[in-house]
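Troubleshooting entry. The earlier prediction with protoporphyrin IX containing FE gave an output that would not parse, so I re-checked the input for stray whitespace and re-submitted. Clean input:
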Amino acid sequence: MQQLHSFVDSLLVSSKDDPTKLFSRLLFLFIAPVAALLLIIRWARWKPYPPGPTGLPLIGNMMMMDQLTHRGLARLAKRYGGLFHLKMGFVHMIVVSSPDEARQVLQAQDHIFSNRPATIAISYLTYDRADMAFAHYGPFWRQMRKLCVMRLFSRKRAESWQSVRDETDHIVRAMASRAGSPVNVGEHVFNLTKNVIYRAAFGSSSSEGQEEFIAILQEFSKLFGAFNIADFIPCLWWVDPNGLNSRLVKARAALDRFIDNIIDGHISYKKKKPNGVVKAEEDMVDDLLNFYSGDEMGKVSESDDLQNAIKLTRDNIKAIIMDVMFGGTETVASAIEWAMAELIRSPDDLKRVQKELEDKVGLTRRVDESDLDKLTYFRCCVKETLRLHPPIPLLLHETAQEAVVGGYRIPKQARVMINAFAIGRDPNSWSDPDSFKPCRFLNEGVPDFKGGNFEFIPFGSGRRSCPGMQLGLYALEMCVANLLHSFTWDLPDGMKPSELSMDDIFGLTAPRASRLIAVPTPRLSCPLY
Ligand code: HEM
Protein backbone atom coordinates (compact mmCIF):
# COMPACT_ATOMS: atom_id res chain seq x y z
CA MET A 1 0.00 0.00 0.00
CA GLN A 2 2.86 2.28 1.00
CA GLN A 3 4.47 1.58 -2.36
CA LEU A 4 1.28 2.38 -4.26
CA HIS A 5 0.98 5.70 -2.43
CA SER A 6 4.53 6.70 -3.25
CA PHE A 7 3.99 5.62 -6.89
CA VAL A 8 0.90 7.84 -7.14
CA ASP A 9 2.73 10.73 -5.36
CA SER A 10 5.65 10.48 -7.73
CA LEU A 11 3.29 10.56 -10.72
CA LEU A 12 1.57 13.68 -9.39
CA VAL A 13 4.77 15.43 -8.33
CA SER A 14 6.59 14.81 -11.60
CA SER A 15 3.68 16.39 -13.54
CA LYS A 16 2.96 19.25 -11.14
CA ASP A 17 3.81 22.01 -13.59
CA ASP A 18 2.17 20.47 -16.64
CA PRO A 19 -1.67 20.03 -16.41
CA THR A 20 -1.93 17.93 -19.60
CA LYS A 21 0.65 15.51 -18.31
CA LEU A 22 -1.15 15.35 -14.99
CA PHE A 23 -4.48 14.64 -16.72
CA SER A 24 -3.09 11.89 -18.91
CA ARG A 25 -1.39 10.25 -15.94
CA LEU A 26 -4.59 10.35 -13.90
CA LEU A 27 -6.44 8.89 -16.84
CA PHE A 28 -3.89 6.09 -17.02
CA LEU A 29 -4.34 5.43 -13.32
CA PHE A 30 -8.07 4.84 -13.81
CA ILE A 31 -8.13 3.23 -17.21
CA ALA A 32 -5.41 0.67 -16.64
CA PRO A 33 -7.20 -1.16 -13.79
CA VAL A 34 -10.56 -1.02 -15.60
CA ALA A 35 -9.00 -2.43 -18.78
CA ALA A 36 -7.26 -5.13 -16.75
CA LEU A 37 -10.53 -6.02 -15.04
CA LEU A 38 -12.34 -6.25 -18.37
CA LEU A 39 -9.61 -8.50 -19.73
CA ILE A 40 -9.86 -10.76 -16.69
CA ILE A 41 -13.66 -10.96 -17.04
CA ARG A 42 -13.33 -11.75 -20.71
CA TRP A 43 -10.70 -14.37 -20.02
CA ALA A 44 -12.85 -15.95 -17.31
CA ARG A 45 -15.79 -16.09 -19.73
CA TRP A 46 -13.73 -17.24 -22.69
CA LYS A 47 -14.93 -20.50 -24.10
CA PRO A 48 -13.27 -22.72 -26.68
CA TYR A 49 -14.92 -23.71 -29.96
CA PRO A 50 -16.39 -27.21 -29.93
CA PRO A 51 -13.86 -29.96 -30.71
CA GLY A 52 -13.13 -30.80 -34.33
CA PRO A 53 -10.41 -31.78 -36.76
CA THR A 54 -7.45 -29.40 -36.95
CA GLY A 55 -7.37 -27.38 -40.14
CA LEU A 56 -4.69 -25.76 -42.27
CA PRO A 57 -3.95 -22.01 -42.20
CA LEU A 58 -6.39 -19.96 -44.29
CA ILE A 59 -8.31 -22.85 -45.86
CA GLY A 60 -9.08 -24.55 -42.51
CA ASN A 61 -10.79 -27.91 -43.09
CA MET A 62 -11.63 -27.30 -46.73
CA MET A 63 -9.78 -30.47 -47.71
CA MET A 64 -12.63 -32.33 -45.99
CA MET A 65 -15.28 -30.77 -48.25
CA ASP A 66 -16.31 -34.19 -49.60
CA GLN A 67 -17.29 -35.26 -46.07
CA LEU A 68 -19.96 -32.58 -45.68
CA THR A 69 -22.79 -35.04 -46.38
CA HIS A 70 -25.20 -36.43 -43.78
CA ARG A 71 -23.28 -39.73 -43.73
CA GLY A 72 -19.81 -38.13 -43.73
CA LEU A 73 -20.76 -35.80 -40.89
CA ALA A 74 -22.36 -38.67 -38.94
CA ARG A 75 -19.02 -40.51 -39.17
CA LEU A 76 -17.14 -37.43 -37.94
CA ALA A 77 -19.62 -37.10 -35.04
CA LYS A 78 -18.63 -40.59 -33.86
CA ARG A 79 -15.11 -39.23 -33.48
CA TYR A 80 -15.71 -35.66 -32.25
CA GLY A 81 -19.07 -35.91 -30.48
CA GLY A 82 -22.59 -34.55 -30.79
CA LEU A 83 -21.34 -30.98 -31.29
CA PHE A 84 -18.26 -30.35 -33.38
CA HIS A 85 -16.61 -27.52 -35.23
CA LEU A 86 -15.12 -27.16 -38.70
CA LYS A 87 -13.60 -24.13 -40.33
CA MET A 88 -14.14 -23.87 -44.08
CA GLY A 89 -12.02 -20.96 -45.28
CA PHE A 90 -13.38 -18.03 -43.26
CA VAL A 91 -16.65 -19.77 -42.39
CA HIS A 92 -17.23 -21.44 -39.03
CA MET A 93 -19.39 -24.56 -39.27
CA ILE A 94 -21.00 -26.21 -36.29
CA VAL A 95 -22.44 -29.70 -36.65
CA VAL A 96 -25.13 -30.90 -34.25
CA SER A 97 -25.65 -34.67 -34.16
CA SER A 98 -27.26 -35.47 -30.82
CA PRO A 99 -30.76 -34.79 -29.41
CA ASP A 100 -29.53 -32.78 -26.39
CA GLU A 101 -27.60 -30.29 -28.47
CA ALA A 102 -30.45 -30.17 -31.01
CA ARG A 103 -32.78 -29.13 -28.18
CA GLN A 104 -30.40 -26.29 -27.27
CA VAL A 105 -30.27 -25.04 -30.83
CA LEU A 106 -33.89 -25.58 -31.90
CA GLN A 107 -35.66 -24.79 -28.65
CA ALA A 108 -33.70 -23.33 -25.71
CA GLN A 109 -31.73 -20.80 -27.79
CA ASP A 110 -33.72 -20.82 -31.03
CA HIS A 111 -33.91 -17.00 -31.10
CA ILE A 112 -30.15 -17.07 -31.81
CA PHE A 113 -30.13 -20.07 -34.16
CA SER A 114 -33.08 -19.26 -36.44
CA ASN A 115 -31.31 -17.43 -39.25
CA ARG A 116 -30.55 -19.22 -42.51
CA PRO A 117 -27.16 -19.38 -44.19
CA ALA A 118 -27.15 -18.65 -47.92
CA THR A 119 -24.41 -19.14 -50.46
CA ILE A 120 -23.84 -16.61 -53.23
CA ALA A 121 -25.93 -18.79 -55.57
CA ILE A 122 -28.80 -19.09 -53.12
CA SER A 123 -28.87 -15.34 -52.43
CA TYR A 124 -28.95 -14.59 -56.14
CA LEU A 125 -31.54 -17.21 -57.06
CA THR A 126 -33.88 -16.22 -54.21
CA TYR A 127 -33.78 -12.55 -55.28
CA ASP A 128 -31.63 -11.75 -52.27
CA ARG A 129 -33.65 -13.83 -49.80
CA ALA A 130 -37.01 -12.46 -50.97
CA ASP A 131 -38.59 -15.83 -50.10
CA MET A 132 -39.43 -17.44 -46.77
CA ALA A 133 -37.11 -20.44 -46.60
CA PHE A 134 -33.94 -18.35 -46.89
CA ALA A 135 -35.14 -15.13 -45.23
CA HIS A 136 -33.38 -14.41 -41.96
CA TYR A 137 -35.50 -14.63 -38.84
CA GLY A 138 -37.26 -11.27 -38.30
CA PRO A 139 -40.47 -9.32 -39.12
CA PHE A 140 -40.39 -10.13 -42.87
CA TRP A 141 -39.94 -13.85 -42.27
CA ARG A 142 -42.62 -13.83 -39.54
CA GLN A 143 -45.26 -12.32 -41.84
CA MET A 144 -44.25 -14.56 -44.77
CA ARG A 145 -44.54 -17.57 -42.51
CA LYS A 146 -48.01 -16.46 -41.39
CA LEU A 147 -48.99 -16.06 -45.02
CA CYS A 148 -47.76 -19.58 -45.83
CA VAL A 149 -49.28 -21.29 -42.81
CA MET A 150 -52.63 -19.45 -42.85
CA ARG A 151 -53.11 -19.31 -46.61
CA LEU A 152 -50.81 -21.24 -48.92
CA PHE A 153 -50.37 -24.50 -46.98
CA SER A 154 -53.58 -24.25 -45.00
CA ARG A 155 -56.00 -27.14 -44.83
CA LYS A 156 -58.64 -24.67 -46.02
CA ARG A 157 -56.97 -24.63 -49.43
CA ALA A 158 -59.11 -27.55 -50.61
CA GLU A 159 -57.54 -27.50 -54.08
CA SER A 160 -54.13 -28.74 -52.83
CA TRP A 161 -55.73 -31.63 -50.95
CA GLN A 162 -57.93 -32.46 -53.92
CA SER A 163 -54.91 -32.59 -56.19
CA VAL A 164 -53.30 -35.18 -53.86
CA ARG A 165 -56.40 -37.39 -54.19
CA ASP A 166 -56.54 -36.96 -57.97
CA GLU A 167 -52.86 -37.72 -58.42
CA THR A 168 -53.13 -40.76 -56.14
CA ASP A 169 -55.93 -42.09 -58.34
CA HIS A 170 -53.77 -41.39 -61.35
CA ILE A 171 -50.74 -43.32 -60.03
CA VAL A 172 -52.89 -46.31 -59.02
CA ARG A 173 -54.39 -46.37 -62.53
CA ALA A 174 -50.94 -46.09 -64.11
CA MET A 175 -49.64 -49.02 -62.01
CA ALA A 176 -52.74 -51.11 -62.77
CA SER A 177 -52.21 -50.61 -66.48
CA ARG A 178 -48.70 -52.08 -66.08
CA ALA A 179 -49.80 -54.94 -63.81
CA GLY A 180 -47.42 -57.89 -63.85
CA SER A 181 -44.49 -56.02 -65.38
CA PRO A 182 -41.66 -53.99 -63.83
CA VAL A 183 -42.60 -50.38 -63.13
CA ASN A 184 -40.32 -47.47 -62.31
CA VAL A 185 -42.00 -46.62 -59.00
CA GLY A 186 -39.56 -43.78 -58.24
CA GLU A 187 -40.28 -41.95 -61.49
CA HIS A 188 -44.06 -42.30 -61.10
CA VAL A 189 -43.87 -41.01 -57.55
CA PHE A 190 -41.76 -38.00 -58.51
CA ASN A 191 -44.32 -37.17 -61.22
CA LEU A 192 -47.09 -37.42 -58.65
CA THR A 193 -45.56 -34.92 -56.22
CA LYS A 194 -44.48 -32.61 -59.03
CA ASN A 195 -48.06 -32.55 -60.37
CA VAL A 196 -49.58 -32.01 -56.93
CA ILE A 197 -47.32 -29.06 -56.13
CA TYR A 198 -47.47 -27.59 -59.63
CA ARG A 199 -51.24 -27.65 -59.58
CA ALA A 200 -51.39 -26.21 -56.05
CA ALA A 201 -49.08 -23.40 -57.13
CA PHE A 202 -50.36 -22.55 -60.62
CA GLY A 203 -53.82 -24.10 -60.88
CA SER A 204 -55.01 -27.04 -62.94
CA SER A 205 -55.28 -25.13 -66.19
CA SER A 206 -51.59 -24.39 -66.55
CA SER A 207 -49.94 -27.76 -67.02
CA GLU A 208 -48.61 -26.94 -70.48
CA GLY A 209 -45.39 -25.27 -69.25
CA GLN A 210 -44.55 -28.02 -66.79
CA GLU A 211 -41.57 -29.50 -68.60
CA GLU A 212 -39.94 -26.08 -68.98
CA PHE A 213 -40.51 -25.32 -65.31
CA ILE A 214 -39.03 -28.65 -64.21
CA ALA A 215 -35.92 -27.96 -66.32
CA ILE A 216 -35.56 -24.59 -64.57
CA LEU A 217 -35.94 -26.28 -61.18
CA GLN A 218 -33.30 -28.85 -62.05
CA GLU A 219 -30.80 -26.14 -63.02
CA PHE A 220 -31.59 -24.26 -59.78
CA SER A 221 -31.00 -27.43 -57.82
CA LYS A 222 -27.60 -27.96 -59.46
CA LEU A 223 -26.62 -24.34 -58.84
CA PHE A 224 -27.72 -24.52 -55.19
CA GLY A 225 -25.30 -27.40 -54.66
CA ALA A 226 -22.42 -26.15 -56.85
CA PHE A 227 -19.10 -25.51 -55.13
CA ASN A 228 -18.02 -21.86 -55.20
CA ILE A 229 -14.74 -20.93 -53.52
CA ALA A 230 -16.01 -17.37 -52.91
CA ASP A 231 -18.55 -18.74 -50.42
CA PHE A 232 -15.66 -19.64 -48.15
CA ILE A 233 -12.94 -17.15 -49.09
CA PRO A 234 -14.86 -14.05 -50.26
CA CYS A 235 -11.80 -12.24 -51.66
CA LEU A 236 -11.59 -14.97 -54.33
CA TRP A 237 -14.93 -13.89 -55.88
CA TRP A 238 -13.24 -13.46 -59.25
CA VAL A 239 -12.25 -17.15 -59.47
CA ASP A 240 -15.04 -18.72 -61.53
CA PRO A 241 -13.57 -21.62 -63.53
CA ASN A 242 -16.96 -23.27 -64.17
CA GLY A 243 -18.78 -20.17 -65.38
CA LEU A 244 -21.08 -20.28 -62.36
CA ASN A 245 -21.89 -16.58 -62.50
CA SER A 246 -23.22 -16.64 -66.05
CA ARG A 247 -25.24 -19.81 -65.29
CA LEU A 248 -26.82 -18.01 -62.34
CA VAL A 249 -27.85 -15.06 -64.50
CA LYS A 250 -29.31 -17.36 -67.17
CA ALA A 251 -31.21 -19.52 -64.67
CA ARG A 252 -32.82 -16.58 -62.92
CA ALA A 253 -33.75 -14.94 -66.22
CA ALA A 254 -35.47 -18.19 -67.29
CA LEU A 255 -37.48 -18.25 -64.06
CA ASP A 256 -38.36 -14.56 -64.49
CA ARG A 257 -39.76 -15.21 -67.96
CA PHE A 258 -41.69 -18.26 -66.87
CA ILE A 259 -43.35 -16.95 -63.70
CA ASP A 260 -43.86 -13.40 -65.04
CA ASN A 261 -46.00 -14.97 -67.77
CA ILE A 262 -48.05 -16.86 -65.21
CA ILE A 263 -48.43 -13.83 -62.96
CA ASP A 264 -49.54 -11.66 -65.89
CA GLY A 265 -52.04 -14.33 -66.95
CA HIS A 266 -53.50 -14.42 -63.44
CA ILE A 267 -53.68 -10.61 -63.22
CA SER A 268 -55.49 -10.29 -66.55
CA TYR A 269 -57.92 -13.07 -65.59
CA LYS A 270 -58.68 -11.22 -62.37
CA LYS A 271 -59.24 -7.96 -64.26
CA LYS A 272 -61.68 -9.56 -66.68
CA LYS A 273 -63.90 -10.76 -63.85
CA PRO A 274 -66.46 -8.25 -62.51
CA ASN A 275 -65.44 -6.79 -59.10
CA GLY A 276 -62.14 -8.66 -59.31
CA VAL A 277 -63.91 -11.91 -58.34
CA VAL A 278 -61.52 -14.75 -58.99
CA LYS A 279 -62.18 -18.28 -60.18
CA ALA A 280 -63.70 -20.67 -57.67
CA GLU A 281 -60.51 -22.68 -57.62
CA GLU A 282 -57.85 -20.35 -56.27
CA ASP A 283 -54.23 -21.41 -56.71
CA MET A 284 -51.24 -20.13 -54.75
CA VAL A 285 -50.46 -17.42 -57.30
CA ASP A 286 -54.02 -16.06 -56.88
CA ASP A 287 -53.52 -16.06 -53.14
CA LEU A 288 -50.17 -14.32 -53.36
CA LEU A 289 -51.57 -11.72 -55.75
CA ASN A 290 -53.98 -10.64 -53.02
CA PHE A 291 -50.87 -9.29 -51.29
CA TYR A 292 -49.22 -7.90 -54.43
CA SER A 293 -48.01 -4.31 -54.18
CA GLY A 294 -48.32 -3.62 -57.94
CA ASP A 295 -45.61 -1.19 -58.98
CA GLU A 296 -44.93 -0.11 -55.42
CA MET A 297 -42.11 -1.37 -53.23
CA GLY A 298 -42.96 -4.33 -51.00
CA LYS A 299 -43.46 -3.57 -47.33
CA VAL A 300 -43.82 -5.37 -44.08
CA SER A 301 -44.98 -4.36 -40.62
CA GLU A 302 -45.67 -6.15 -37.34
CA SER A 303 -49.46 -5.62 -37.65
CA ASP A 304 -51.58 -8.62 -36.68
CA ASP A 305 -53.84 -8.06 -39.68
CA LEU A 306 -51.99 -9.97 -42.37
CA GLN A 307 -53.59 -8.08 -45.24
CA ASN A 308 -52.16 -4.80 -43.91
CA ALA A 309 -48.95 -6.28 -42.61
CA ILE A 310 -47.37 -7.38 -45.86
CA LYS A 311 -47.18 -6.18 -49.47
CA LEU A 312 -45.33 -8.45 -51.86
CA THR A 313 -43.22 -7.63 -54.90
CA ARG A 314 -43.01 -9.84 -57.97
CA ASP A 315 -39.66 -11.07 -56.72
CA ASN A 316 -41.28 -12.18 -53.45
CA ILE A 317 -43.95 -14.09 -55.38
CA LYS A 318 -41.41 -15.82 -57.62
CA ALA A 319 -39.18 -16.71 -54.69
CA ILE A 320 -42.05 -18.16 -52.62
CA ILE A 321 -43.18 -20.29 -55.54
CA MET A 322 -39.66 -21.69 -55.73
CA ASP A 323 -39.79 -22.48 -51.98
CA VAL A 324 -42.99 -24.40 -52.49
CA MET A 325 -41.66 -26.33 -55.47
CA PHE A 326 -38.37 -27.18 -53.73
CA GLY A 327 -39.92 -27.78 -50.31
CA GLY A 328 -42.78 -29.94 -51.54
CA THR A 329 -41.60 -32.01 -54.49
CA GLU A 330 -38.44 -33.99 -53.74
CA THR A 331 -39.14 -34.24 -50.00
CA VAL A 332 -42.45 -36.03 -50.41
CA ALA A 333 -41.31 -38.07 -53.44
CA SER A 334 -38.23 -39.40 -51.66
CA ALA A 335 -40.24 -40.28 -48.54
CA ILE A 336 -42.80 -42.25 -50.62
CA GLU A 337 -40.10 -44.09 -52.54
CA TRP A 338 -38.18 -44.96 -49.34
CA ALA A 339 -41.35 -46.21 -47.63
CA MET A 340 -42.13 -48.50 -50.56
CA ALA A 341 -38.53 -49.73 -50.75
CA GLU A 342 -38.25 -50.42 -47.00
CA LEU A 343 -41.53 -52.37 -46.99
CA ILE A 344 -40.69 -54.38 -50.09
CA ARG A 345 -37.37 -55.21 -48.43
CA SER A 346 -39.14 -56.28 -45.25
CA PRO A 347 -41.83 -58.82 -46.35
CA ASP A 348 -43.11 -59.50 -42.81
CA ASP A 349 -43.88 -55.82 -42.23
CA LEU A 350 -45.41 -55.56 -45.70
CA LYS A 351 -47.70 -58.51 -44.93
CA ARG A 352 -48.70 -56.99 -41.60
CA VAL A 353 -49.56 -53.62 -43.17
CA GLN A 354 -51.53 -55.26 -45.96
CA LYS A 355 -53.43 -57.34 -43.44
CA GLU A 356 -54.27 -54.18 -41.51
CA LEU A 357 -55.49 -52.53 -44.73
CA GLU A 358 -57.59 -55.59 -45.55
CA ASP A 359 -59.15 -55.56 -42.05
CA LYS A 360 -59.73 -51.83 -41.71
CA VAL A 361 -60.53 -50.83 -45.28
CA GLY A 362 -61.58 -54.07 -46.98
CA LEU A 363 -60.65 -55.38 -50.40
CA THR A 364 -63.62 -53.86 -52.18
CA ARG A 365 -62.47 -50.24 -52.26
CA ARG A 366 -59.46 -47.92 -52.20
CA VAL A 367 -58.13 -46.16 -49.08
CA ASP A 368 -59.59 -42.75 -48.39
CA GLU A 369 -58.66 -40.01 -45.97
CA SER A 370 -61.04 -41.13 -43.22
CA ASP A 371 -59.26 -44.53 -43.08
CA LEU A 372 -55.83 -43.14 -42.24
CA ASP A 373 -56.47 -42.68 -38.51
CA LYS A 374 -57.37 -46.36 -38.18
CA LEU A 375 -54.14 -47.58 -39.77
CA THR A 376 -51.91 -47.81 -36.68
CA TYR A 377 -49.23 -50.13 -38.04
CA PHE A 378 -49.14 -48.37 -41.38
CA ARG A 379 -48.42 -45.09 -39.56
CA CYS A 380 -45.61 -46.79 -37.62
CA CYS A 381 -44.07 -47.75 -40.99
CA VAL A 382 -44.29 -44.15 -42.20
CA LYS A 383 -42.57 -42.90 -39.04
CA GLU A 384 -39.88 -45.56 -39.25
CA THR A 385 -39.20 -44.52 -42.84
CA LEU A 386 -38.85 -40.87 -41.83
CA ARG A 387 -36.55 -41.84 -38.96
CA LEU A 388 -34.18 -43.78 -41.21
CA HIS A 389 -34.50 -41.50 -44.25
CA PRO A 390 -35.36 -37.93 -43.23
CA PRO A 391 -35.95 -36.29 -46.64
CA ILE A 392 -33.95 -33.21 -45.61
CA PRO A 393 -31.08 -34.86 -43.73
CA LEU A 394 -29.21 -31.67 -42.78
CA LEU A 395 -31.12 -28.70 -41.37
CA LEU A 396 -29.21 -25.53 -42.19
CA HIS A 397 -29.33 -22.67 -39.71
CA GLU A 398 -27.10 -19.69 -38.89
CA THR A 399 -26.38 -17.85 -35.63
CA ALA A 400 -27.55 -14.24 -35.30
CA GLN A 401 -25.09 -13.61 -32.46
CA GLU A 402 -22.46 -15.42 -30.43
CA ALA A 403 -23.82 -18.22 -28.23
CA VAL A 404 -22.64 -20.89 -25.81
CA VAL A 405 -23.80 -24.50 -26.20
CA GLY A 406 -22.59 -27.30 -23.92
CA GLY A 407 -19.84 -25.00 -22.61
CA TYR A 408 -18.52 -24.25 -26.12
CA ARG A 409 -18.44 -20.98 -27.98
CA ILE A 410 -20.50 -20.73 -31.18
CA PRO A 411 -19.49 -17.59 -33.07
CA LYS A 412 -21.86 -15.14 -34.72
CA GLN A 413 -22.81 -16.03 -38.33
CA ALA A 414 -21.66 -19.62 -37.89
CA ARG A 415 -23.32 -22.12 -40.22
CA VAL A 416 -25.09 -24.66 -38.08
CA MET A 417 -25.93 -28.05 -39.58
CA ILE A 418 -28.33 -30.15 -37.56
CA ASN A 419 -27.87 -33.70 -38.75
CA ALA A 420 -31.44 -35.09 -38.58
CA PHE A 421 -30.17 -38.28 -40.22
CA ALA A 422 -27.55 -38.91 -37.49
CA ILE A 423 -30.01 -37.96 -34.74
CA GLY A 424 -32.61 -40.44 -36.04
CA ARG A 425 -29.96 -43.18 -35.82
CA ASP A 426 -28.43 -42.13 -32.51
CA PRO A 427 -27.67 -45.40 -30.62
CA ASN A 428 -28.33 -43.71 -27.26
CA SER A 429 -31.91 -42.93 -28.31
CA TRP A 430 -32.79 -45.89 -30.55
CA SER A 431 -32.11 -49.60 -30.14
CA ASP A 432 -30.75 -51.31 -33.24
CA PRO A 433 -30.84 -47.86 -34.89
CA ASP A 434 -29.96 -48.82 -38.47
CA SER A 435 -32.69 -51.49 -38.83
CA PHE A 436 -36.19 -50.92 -40.19
CA LYS A 437 -38.40 -51.91 -37.23
CA PRO A 438 -41.77 -50.11 -37.41
CA CYS A 439 -43.04 -51.92 -34.29
CA ARG A 440 -40.76 -49.73 -32.14
CA PHE A 441 -43.36 -46.99 -32.65
CA LEU A 442 -46.04 -49.12 -30.98
CA ASN A 443 -44.24 -48.73 -27.64
CA GLU A 444 -45.53 -46.30 -25.04
CA GLY A 445 -43.66 -42.98 -24.85
CA VAL A 446 -41.71 -43.44 -28.09
CA PRO A 447 -40.66 -40.08 -29.64
CA ASP A 448 -42.98 -38.48 -32.17
CA PHE A 449 -42.09 -36.10 -35.00
CA LYS A 450 -44.46 -33.30 -34.05
CA GLY A 451 -41.46 -31.28 -32.85
CA GLY A 452 -41.21 -31.81 -29.07
CA ASN A 453 -38.91 -34.86 -29.21
CA PHE A 454 -35.44 -34.05 -30.40
CA GLU A 455 -34.57 -37.70 -31.08
CA PHE A 456 -36.79 -37.59 -34.17
CA ILE A 457 -36.91 -34.38 -36.22
CA PRO A 458 -37.72 -35.17 -39.89
CA PHE A 459 -39.73 -31.92 -40.10
CA GLY A 460 -37.33 -29.92 -37.90
CA SER A 461 -38.62 -28.27 -34.75
CA GLY A 462 -39.34 -24.77 -33.49
CA ARG A 463 -39.53 -21.55 -35.49
CA ARG A 464 -38.03 -22.83 -38.73
CA SER A 465 -39.77 -26.21 -38.73
CA CYS A 466 -41.62 -27.32 -41.86
CA PRO A 467 -44.78 -25.29 -42.54
CA GLY A 468 -45.88 -27.83 -45.19
CA MET A 469 -45.90 -30.83 -42.84
CA GLN A 470 -49.65 -31.41 -42.97
CA LEU A 471 -49.80 -31.37 -46.76
CA GLY A 472 -46.58 -33.37 -47.06
CA LEU A 473 -47.78 -36.09 -44.68
CA TYR A 474 -51.15 -36.25 -46.37
CA ALA A 475 -49.57 -36.84 -49.78
CA LEU A 476 -47.12 -39.37 -48.32
CA GLU A 477 -49.77 -41.36 -46.47
CA MET A 478 -52.44 -41.29 -49.18
CA CYS A 479 -50.03 -42.41 -51.87
CA VAL A 480 -48.24 -45.18 -49.93
CA ALA A 481 -51.46 -46.53 -48.35
CA ASN A 482 -53.15 -46.78 -51.75
CA LEU A 483 -50.17 -48.38 -53.46
CA LEU A 484 -49.86 -50.98 -50.70
CA HIS A 485 -53.58 -51.64 -50.54
CA SER A 486 -54.17 -51.88 -54.28
CA PHE A 487 -51.25 -54.17 -55.20
CA THR A 488 -48.96 -56.88 -53.98
CA TRP A 489 -45.35 -55.99 -54.77
CA ASP A 490 -42.46 -58.09 -56.03
CA LEU A 491 -38.98 -57.28 -57.22
CA PRO A 492 -38.14 -57.85 -60.92
CA ASP A 493 -36.09 -60.73 -62.32
CA GLY A 494 -36.43 -62.88 -59.20
CA MET A 495 -34.43 -60.40 -57.09
CA LYS A 496 -34.64 -61.24 -53.37
CA PRO A 497 -35.88 -58.48 -51.02
CA SER A 498 -32.56 -58.57 -49.12
CA GLU A 499 -30.74 -57.77 -52.39
CA LEU A 500 -32.49 -54.43 -52.83
CA SER A 501 -29.92 -51.66 -52.61
CA MET A 502 -30.63 -49.01 -49.97
CA ASP A 503 -27.91 -46.52 -51.00
CA ASP A 504 -28.81 -42.86 -51.01
CA ILE A 505 -27.35 -39.77 -52.64
CA PHE A 506 -26.81 -36.41 -51.07
CA GLY A 507 -28.18 -33.07 -52.24
CA LEU A 508 -30.80 -30.77 -50.77
CA THR A 509 -32.65 -34.04 -50.12
CA ALA A 510 -31.36 -37.61 -49.80
CA PRO A 511 -33.30 -39.80 -52.28
CA ARG A 512 -32.47 -43.36 -53.28
CA ALA A 513 -29.34 -43.66 -55.39
CA SER A 514 -31.23 -45.79 -57.93
CA ARG A 515 -34.92 -45.59 -58.73
CA LEU A 516 -37.09 -48.29 -57.20
CA ILE A 517 -38.30 -50.76 -59.84
CA ALA A 518 -41.01 -53.23 -58.73
CA VAL A 519 -43.78 -55.38 -60.14
CA PRO A 520 -47.36 -54.60 -59.02
CA THR A 521 -50.12 -57.21 -59.01
CA PRO A 522 -53.67 -55.96 -58.32
CA ARG A 523 -55.26 -57.36 -55.13
CA LEU A 524 -58.61 -55.52 -54.87
CA SER A 525 -61.92 -56.83 -56.13
CA CYS A 526 -63.02 -53.36 -57.33
CA PRO A 527 -61.84 -52.00 -60.70
CA LEU A 528 -58.66 -49.93 -60.46
CA TYR A 529 -59.18 -48.00 -63.68
C1 HEM B 1 -42.46 -35.40 -46.19
C2 HEM B 1 -42.52 -34.14 -46.49
C3 HEM B 1 -41.67 -33.03 -45.93
C4 HEM B 1 -40.60 -33.08 -45.06
C5 HEM B 1 -39.99 -34.31 -44.40
C6 HEM B 1 -40.15 -31.71 -44.85
C7 HEM B 1 -39.11 -31.35 -44.02
C8 HEM B 1 -38.69 -30.04 -43.81
C9 HEM B 1 -37.58 -29.66 -42.99
C10 HEM B 1 -36.69 -30.63 -42.23
C11 HEM B 1 -37.46 -28.32 -43.03
C12 HEM B 1 -36.37 -27.44 -42.38
C13 HEM B 1 -36.56 -27.28 -40.89
C14 HEM B 1 -35.42 -26.51 -40.26
O1 HEM B 1 -34.62 -25.89 -40.93
O2 HEM B 1 -35.30 -26.56 -39.02
C15 HEM B 1 -38.51 -27.83 -43.90
C16 HEM B 1 -38.72 -26.50 -44.18
C17 HEM B 1 -39.63 -26.06 -45.10
N1 HEM B 1 -40.56 -26.84 -45.76
FE1 HEM B 1 -40.84 -28.82 -45.58
N2 HEM B 1 -40.94 -30.88 -45.60
C18 HEM B 1 -41.88 -31.63 -46.26
C19 HEM B 1 -42.89 -31.18 -47.08
C20 HEM B 1 -43.08 -29.86 -47.41
C21 HEM B 1 -44.13 -29.38 -48.28
C22 HEM B 1 -45.20 -30.26 -48.93
C23 HEM B 1 -43.95 -28.04 -48.40
C24 HEM B 1 -44.73 -27.03 -49.19
C25 HEM B 1 -45.73 -27.26 -49.98
C26 HEM B 1 -42.80 -27.66 -47.58
C27 HEM B 1 -42.30 -26.37 -47.45
C28 HEM B 1 -41.26 -26.02 -46.61
C29 HEM B 1 -40.77 -24.63 -46.47
C30 HEM B 1 -41.27 -23.41 -47.23
C31 HEM B 1 -39.75 -24.67 -45.51
C32 HEM B 1 -38.92 -23.49 -44.99
C33 HEM B 1 -39.49 -22.98 -43.66
C34 HEM B 1 -38.73 -21.80 -43.05
O3 HEM B 1 -37.58 -21.60 -43.38
O4 HEM B 1 -39.30 -21.10 -42.21
N3 HEM B 1 -42.31 -28.79 -47.00
N4 HEM B 1 -39.24 -28.90 -44.36
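This one parsed fine. The CA atoms of residues 339 and 385 lie 6 Å apart.
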